[in-house]
Amino acid sequence: MTDFSPESLAAIGPKEFTQLVKSTPDSKIAEVMASDTRTKILDEVFNRMPTLFRAERSGDTAAVMHWIITGGPNGQDTYETVIENKTCTVTSEPVRQPRLAMTMDALTFLKTITGAGNPMMLFMTGKIKAKGDLSLATSIPKLFDIPKG
């Protein structure tokens, strides 16, 4: 497979990225996600989120979610996902009050979004901390096309 780097991520699709996360040792992912390349990787992941959004399953969902990713070289990174009017937008500069805020380290985040980790189990074991509308958290998988690797 390819190396775990921003350049590699930009060149592969969601399914290949899922396989990359599953095949890369946790220690390597944690090392990369604690480095200066972390922001590029997170930006690439979040920039793809609107393309994986399933508008047909969103119904009348209106939600602002904050993803707080801890453990970076400069502390934490926060991204805002807004779902409204059957659209999904993402920014790395949150401005709206979240209906749901989730805090986790970068490894847990990548495992969650690729289906390599069970979000409910990660929440129950304290790896994911959530504030706000927990029912929204349980609906995230149906709102996005999470590739199976």
From TrEMBL:
It holds the Pfam family SCP2. SUPFAM superfamilies: SCP-like. This is SCP2 sterol-binding domain-containing protein. It comes from the Bacteria. Residues 59-145 form the SCP2 domain. It comes from Actinoplanes hulinensis.
